Amino acid sequence: MIALKRRYVIITSIAVLLLAAASWALSRLYVSLHANLLAMLGLTLAGMLLMGVMWALFAIARKQTAESEARHRAMLEAMPDLMFRLSSIGEYLDVHAPEPARKLLAAGTRIGATVRETLPAQQAEQWQMTIQRALGSGTAQSLEYVLPLPAGERHFEARVVPFGSDQVVSVVRDITDRIETEQAVRESERKFRAMFDQAVELIGAAKPDGTLFEVNRAAVDMMGVDPATLTGMKVWEIPWLPHAPESQAMLQEQFRHAAVKALAGEYVQQTHIIEGPDGKTRVLDFAAGPVRDEAGEIDFLFARSHDITDRVRAETDLRASRQQLRTLSRRLIELQERERSHIARELHDHVGQALTAAKLNLAMIEQDSEEPAIEKRAQDGISIIDDLLDEVRTLALELRPPMLDDLGLVAALRWYTGRQAERAGIEADFRASASGWLLDDEAASACFRVAQEAITNALKHADAKTLVVELRAENDECILTVTDDGSGFDADRATQLDPDPASMGIVGMRERVSLVDGSLTIESKPGVGTTVRASFPLHATNPRQEAEKHDESHKSSARR
After folding, report:
1. pTM above 0.90, yes or no
2. Between 3.60.15.10, 3.30.565.10, 3.40.710.10, 3.40.50.300, what CATH number should domain 403-559 receive?
3. Which residue among 226, 335, 383, 550 has its CA within the 20 to 30 Å range from the CA of 496?
4. Do the Cβ atoms of 281 and 273 come closer than 8 Å?
5. pLDDT tens-digit profile of 405-433?
6. At 363, phi and psi to the nearest 5?
């Protein structure tokens, strides 16, 4: 705007000089040609024409100057920043403060005032020194300062440009938001760095060519290498195994392959066994993947390794412990079945025979006695012994039914289902379609015990009126299903990790099934009945085993 005013003054001065020169030339011509009236008239007309041209030029210059001033004024008003023109001593010669930025002016800022009058002493001194540097060097200078205002403390950035030999023009911008953002970013970076270094995992970042540029403290401690040495290495060049060159080369090749895949856009996860700087073997869970920028291009590779040595050791110990428990449980169940068989034989062979002998003696006493009282007592004794024989026979069969060993699982289940239904007075349906397949003795015993427990629960606890037991072959498995219409129960609660004592039968079923690599599911809800489903791995029937079992069955029948 100031430059436009100067141009206007220069144009006006030139026009005045031209007009003066034309008047002088006309006067000289008039003196030399005063006798010639026509010449004088022509000269007068030429002078008037020249004056009209000059005034037209003046009007055009004024219009252009006004338009230029309007454009610059509009551009100036559109700028949201503060603008000042100051003298060499810091006096405000011009102040531009648009409405949004007017509230950022220091109190007392006006034309004629100085920076020392409007700003705090420290900020005023900064301004004065910046003005002197700009005027002394003839180049633009920058200044950042903080100004307390009624609305709060604000941060400003000023650009000071020399204007002539004793003035400067300055643009002042409010940078408070930028400063706060930068502070927030620095604080976030500080927190991230603290978490990065305190993480127990080994974390690193690599450029797209595989060069490490960032590692955390855990990685440095694990590898026993100076951080400055690590940064700049390729991921596959890290000295993981300083004492085992062969393993080192193999491990580096694994890391190189993983890094190449990750840098190609894949997510990679591997497990590595390394030797730490302390000479101890460590197991690392390594994972790496690409981090992409806003354009979708791979910016860098992020990798982490977690020391899972303790976890792997604990899992190994747990598997060993579970295997020991399975072995112990299998052994206990074998001993239990043997003991059941032994007790069943003892009850059948000794107790049963003794009771039978006692019954025969009482029968002889009854037959030989002539006294009615003795006959009555003998008859009562015989009746009691008959009941005892039934109980002993039932107990022996429930402990270990001989037909399970002699005739097989299907015959044993059919007998047991019918016998229990008859004793309880309910309807029972047994279905079997497992011919041509054979369960080993351990699986057959487990299947029978699961059915025995399920039937007992249905009759004793669920008050069932209908019972269906099904045995079938399906997809190389023997499937046992026991369904009742009893009262049902909460299956989730009964199968939880810490069941109540009333649910220990279910725990026993599950344990027996798991020991033969089978599976057990129980579906039940209060009021809708229960379905117990157990599956056992099947084996094709061996004709020789079937023949041996048939011969053994005949021998057992002959002994009885």
Report:
1. no
2. 3.30.565.10
3. 335
4. yes
5. 778 888 888 888 888 888 888 888 999 87
6. -65, -40
Do the Cβ atoms of 15 and 54 come closer than 8 Å?
Answer: yes
Q: What would the DSSP string read from start to end of 243-278? A: T-HHHHHHHHHHHHHHHHHHHTT--EEEEEEEE-TT
Digit-coded pLDDT (tens) for 373-412: 777 787 788 788 777 877 777 777 677 777 777 788 888 8
Measured CA to CA, the distance from residue 119 to residue 125 in angstroms comes to 9
Q: Which of 350, 346, 356 is nearest to 400 (CA)?
A: 346
φ/ψ of residue 406, rounded to 5: -90, -45
DSSP string, 342-376: HHHHHIIIIIHHHHHHHHHHHHHHHHH---HHHHH
> Which pLDDT score is estimated for 137?
93
Cα 47 to Cα 36: distance, rounded to the nearest angstrom = 17
Would you say how long the chain is, in residues? 560
Instruction: Report the alpha-carbon distance of residue 376 to residue 528 in Å, rounded.
Output: 51
Topology alike, domains 212-307 and 403-559: no
> Alpha carbon of 442 to those of 402, 445, 457, 465: distances in Å?
15, 5, 23, 31
Q: Which range has highest mean pLDDT (22-26, 411-415, 437-441)?
A: 411-415
> What is residue 64's three-state secondary structure?
helix
- Domain 80-180 is in which class? alpha beta
Structural class in CATH, domain 212-307: alpha beta
Strands 477-484 and 466-474: antiparallel
Sheet holding 466-474, edge to edge: 427-433, 466-474, 477-484, 530-537, 519-524
Percent of the chain scoring above 90 in pLDDT? 13
What was the pLDDT predicted at 550? Answer: 44
